[in-house]
Write a structure and sequence with these properties.
Length: about 200
């Protein structure tokens, strides 16, 4: 009888596979772009428990080519710290990778990202992100209700969903920041219930 493979070795194999697949996706996106159209790639852990999703990249993200670079990323990082959520267990991306592409192309890329990362929680930021996720018709998924800000619901049998306002649109006035925080803070209790590794 063959010896059992240790759990950490299995995890390392999944991690190597996820890194390879994320890199392949990044290479494919780079080939789709040019000097004037640079893709904004997802950032974070390739097997993250938490998958942050905004609709479209902002100018600072486009300039750097990295999702959640700039004000939104800083706001989310501060929020994660307040909630005692390990930022190394988070992956962030945009529905649109260039901000201008056909949504059907972007849908295929986002579907691949979700399959690669296999998160436990998808945080859809803003109504356009929620609609985009629902249009994916992800396998075994329930539609995400855009009116359920701040409640963790079922998305698939293995992925929950949390709806928040669009973080980019929430940064410039206090009532919007408060509304974003009131929805996003549901991540804290959800995170605290996750089993340790």
């Amino acid at each position: 009888m063959p010896a059992a493979v240790p759990t950490d070795e299995i995890y390392e194999r999944y991690l190597k596979k996820a890194i390879s697949e994320i890199n392949e996706l990044g290479d494919e996106l780079a080939r789709e772009g040019d000097e004037l159209r640079v893709p904004v790639l997802g950032s974070g852990h390739p097997l993250a428990d938490v998958f942050l999703l905004k609709y479209a990249p902002q100018p600072s993200e486009i300039q750097e080519g990295v999702a959640f670079f700039g004000r939104a990323g800083q706001a989310v990082l501060k929020s994660l710290q307040r909630l005692h959520v390990d930022p190394l267990a988070v992956y962030g991306t945009n529905c649109l990778k260039f901000g201008t592409e056909d949504p059907a192309d972007a849908a295929a890329w986002l579907t691949r990202e979700l399959h690669i990362v296999q998160p436990k929680l998808l945080i859809a930021m803003g109504q356009r992100s929620v609609a985009f996720v629902n249009d994916l018709r992800f396998p075994l998924s329930d539609p995400v209700d855009p009116q359920t800000e701040g409640a963790v619901l079922r998305f698939t049998p293995t992925i929950g969903a949390l709806v928040t306002p669009d973080v980019d649109e929430s940064l410039d006035d206090q009532p919007s920041k408060t509304r974003f925080w009131n929805a996003f803070k549901a991540l804290g209790p959800w995170w605290a219930e996750q089993p340790p590794y």
